[in-house]
Amino acid sequence: MYRADGWEGELVETDEAKPFWMGTDQIPYERMWADDAYWMPKLLAGEKFRGWFEFDGERMEWSKMEKA
Asked: What is the CA 35 to chain-centroid distance, rounded?
């Protein structure tokens, strides 16, 4: 995950991704890994943090977050 405050150019589809823009209020957390809902809002808000997440398959078993 990368965060940028500015960008120039065109989005380009690859074998791994079909990039597109969306509003931060439209992020489909329910379709993403469970940990994304914990750390992504902090990243988008510009907060500095550390996070640890442990999964058993697709189920998040353990998590810890702290300010950096």
From this structure: 8
Residue 3 in any domain: the answer is no
Is 34 inside a domain boundary? yes
- Report yes or no on 58 lying in a domain: yes
Give the model's pLDDT for residue 60.
97
pLDDT digits (tens, 9 = 90+) for 27-58: 999 999 999 999 999 999 999 999 999 999 99
**How far is it, in rounded angstroms, from Cα 1 to Cα 4?**
10
DSSP state of 58: T
- What pTM was estimated for this model as a whole? 0.77
**53-62: Cβ within 8 A, 24+ apart:** 58/33, 58/34, 59/34, 60/33, 60/34, 60/35
Would residue 2 count as lying in a domain?
no
